[in-house]
Design brief:
- The structure is a single chain.
- The protein has 198 residues and is mainly α.
- It has a domain of 136 residues: Tetracycline Repressor, domain 2 (Orthogonal Bundle), CATH 1.10.357.10.
- 75% of the residues lie in helices and 0% in strands.
- The longest helix has 28 residues.
Length: 198
C-alpha cells in the first residue's frame, strides 16, 4: 500500500490509536504497529523519537479530534446550554454499547496503564481531559446565563460530571452493559437542573 508521505505520520497515529484501544499501550509492539500500518521502521523514527513520544502524539491527536467534535456539537446556538450538554452525553450513551467504543476508551484504557509507566503520557492525558472539562464548563456557564442550568459553579460542576462519566465508562467496560452510563445520564440531568446536590 502506497501512502502519501505528507499523511504518513497521521496514518501511523490512526493505526496506532486503533491498536492501543484494542490491546493497550504496553501490548502494542513496534513491529506489530509497522506491519499493520505497512510503513518501514525508518518512517516511524522519522516522526517519533521513541514509543513514548508516539504515545504522547496519539493522545494529543485523540484530544484534538475530540475537541473538534465538541466544538461542532457545542456551537449550535439554536439550543440552550442544557440541551447542548444533554446532546453530548446522549452521544456518549449511544456510543457505549457495553464495550470499548472508539470515541471514549482511550482515556479509560490508558489512564491506569500509563500513569505509572510514563509521566509524559500521564500529563498528556491529564491536559487533554482538562481541556474537555474546560469546554464543558463554558457550556454550563452559558446554560447558567440562559437559565437552562441550575448550578452555582460551572467549573466544579464540569469537573464533577466528567469524573462521573469517566468512572461510569470504566464500570461499563467491567459490566459489559450500559447500566452505569444510563445512571450517569440520569444523575447528570438532575444535577444540571439543580435537583441533585454535589
Amino acid at each position: 500500500m502506497k501512502i502519501d508521505p505528507l499523511s504518513t505520520r497521521q496514518h501511523i497515529l490512526d493505526v496506532g490509536y486503533q491498536l492501543i484501544v484494542e490491546k493497550g499501550f504496553s501490548n502494542v509492539g513496534l513491529s506489530q504497529l509497522l506491519s499493520k500500518a505497512e510503513v518501514p521502521k525508518g518512517s516511524f523514527y522519522h516522526y517519533f523519537k521513541s514509543k513514548e513520544c508516539f504515545g504522547e502524539a496519539v493522545i494529543d491527536d485523540y484530544f484534538s479530534g475530540y475537541r473538534a467534535r465538541l466544538e461542532g456539537l457545542f456551537s449550535d446556538k439554536s439550543l440552550n446550554g442544557y440541551e447542548r450538554l444533554i446532546n453530548y452525553w446522549q452521544k456518549w450513551v449511544d456510543l457505549s454499547h457495553g464495550v470499548c467504543g472508539s470515541h471514549r476508551c482511550l482515556v479509560v484504557k490508558l489512564s491506569g496503564e500509563v500513569s505509572d509507566l510514563s509521566e509524559a503520557m500521564r500529563l498528556s492525558l491529564l491536559n487533554g481531559a482538562n481541556s474537555i472539562i474546560s469546554m464543558i464548563a463554558l457550556v454550563i456557564q452559558e446554560g447558567i446565563n440562559d437559565g437552562s442550568i441550575k448550578v452555582n459553579d460551572a467549573k466544579a460542576a464540569s469537573e464533577h460530571l466528567y469524573h462521573l462519566w469517566v468512572g461510569a465508562s470504566l464500570m461499563t467496560k467491567l459490566n459489559q452493559n450500559t447500566q452505569c452510563v444510563a445512571q450517569a445520564f440520569m444523575m447528570t440531568k438532575s444535577l444540571l437542573k439543580g435537583e441533585a446536590p454535589f
